[in-house]
């Protein structure tokens, strides 16, 4: 299988490693606008070759777009002219604006995917061969993709040990706002709240598991997350509003010393873990 990976960071690099582990006969061509990342991707053997010409990708079996979500939208028109059998899969964390921007000429080639796995790290050195194993991937508006493309995407994700969920792009973005985008906003806010204190180092010296868990994703790439918040603005704002309501509820219960009600409020939150 001839594969092209556009974006040789955490997601693209990990996908390359996973493909190499799973398939013997895979040849991987890489593309990245950061020269240093191209060098690292070759050194780490994520890719076999690098090209800075998207024309070189147009006859491959599979092209993976693993770049920030605005970059995906900007790059799609450049892929017009791919072979009719080529499958293009994007890994963007948002889906609605992306599916709306796919040029008609390549709509059948395109499969909109969101692997629900990742870390706060970025770049080729962050790539991990087992990032996708056992994780969920959401495929959106799959009926718009061609038969060959659907079949190949399903086969590869299944072969890599992933569980496939199907959803329309709008529903995906609403859910992603709650399960991923709003939590990232909270983590950035938490980190900034502590950093604003007079002596943040003294506070952070005491950090235990809870703070570390909640602030880990505040290390995530601002380049990537600014694009995500921008594309999913409406759903993100709704999720933040809902969260603010819950925080205010907690604030009022504490202010009014309603300890029993506070206890119930916390118990309701405990229930989340019965379905997680
Ligand atoms: N980081 C995560 O945990 C997850 C990320 N995603 C999505 O995957 C995509 C990639 O994310 P990561 O791999 O984490 O980012 P990353 O920052 O680790 O890697 C992105 C790579 O793309 C390159 N790049 C950026 N814009 C480009 C462009 N226009 N043309 C060519 N190369 C370009 C960068 O130099 C970098 O090497 C994003 O769309 C993100 O929303 C999806 C699931 C999880
Ligand atoms: O590091 C974590 O816990 C994440 O939540 C990673 C992540 C980031 C972006 C996504 O679209 C999906 C997963």
From TrEMBL:
Keyword Amino-acid biosynthesis: yes
One Gene Ontology term of the molecular function aspect: prephenate dehydrogenase (NADP+) activity
Domain of life: Bacteria
Enzyme class at the top of the EC tree: oxidoreductase
Family recorded in the similarity comment: Belongs to the prephenate/arogenate dehydrogenase family.
Catalyzed reaction equations: prephenate + NAD(+) = 3-(4-hydroxyphenyl)pyruvate + CO2 + NADH
Gene3D superfamilies: 6-phosphogluconate dehydrogenase C-terminal like domain, NAD(P)-binding Rossmann-like Domain
Name of the protein: prephenate dehydrogenase
Keywords: Amino-acid biosynthesis, Aromatic amino acid biosynthesis, NAD, Oxidoreductase, Tyrosine biosynthesis
Record EC number: 1.3.1.12
PANTHER family to which the protein is assigned, alphabetical: PREPHENATE DEHYDROGENASE (PTHR21363), PREPHENATE DEHYDROGENASE [NADP(+)] (PTHR21363:SF0)
Residue ranges occupied by any Prephenate/arogenate dehydrogenase domain in the UniProt entry: 1-276
Listed pathway(s): Amino-acid biosynthesis; L-tyrosine biosynthesis; (4-hydroxyphenyl)pyruvate from prephenate (NAD(+) route): step 1/1
Organism of derivation: Nitratifractor salsuginis (strain DSM 16511 / JCM 12458 / E9I37-1)
GO biological process terms on file: tyrosine biosynthetic process
